[in-house]
C-alpha cells in the first residue's frame, strides 16, 4: 500500500462567514437565516487542513451538489 493512501486531509468549503453574539445564535430556531459576508456570485473558499488552497463554485448536476475548483490559490514563501 502506498504511503499517500494513509494520509488524511480535512477539506472545508466555505460559502461565507459572519460574526454574531452567542446569545443570537442560541435563540435561532429551525429555518433561521444567517446573513453571510458573500453573495451568490462570490467564489467559494476551499481549505485543506485549515489552509486556503483554492476558490470554486457550486454546480448541480443530475441532482448532485458539486464543488468545482475554478482557481488554485498560490502560496508564496
Automatic annotation (TrEMBL):
Annotated GO CC locations: bacterial-type flagellum basal body; plasma membrane
Signal peptide bounds: none
Gene Ontology process terms (BP): bacterial-type flagellum-dependent cell motility; chemotaxis
Membrane topology: Peripheral membrane protein
GO molecular function, one term: cytoskeletal motor activity
Pfam families for the chain: FliMN_C
Keywords: Cell membrane, Cell projection, Chemotaxis, Cilium, Flagellar rotation, Flagellum, Membrane
Residue ranges of every copy of the Flagellar motor switch protein FliN-like C-terminal domain listed in the record: 4-73
Location relative to the cell: Cell membrane
UniProt family annotation: Belongs to the FliN/MopA/SpaO family.
PANTHER family attached to this UniProt entry: FLAGELLAR MOTOR SWITCH PROTEIN FLIN, PTHR43484
Protein name (Swiss-Prot/TrEMBL): Flagellar motor switch protein FliN
Organism the protein comes from: Devosia aurantiaca
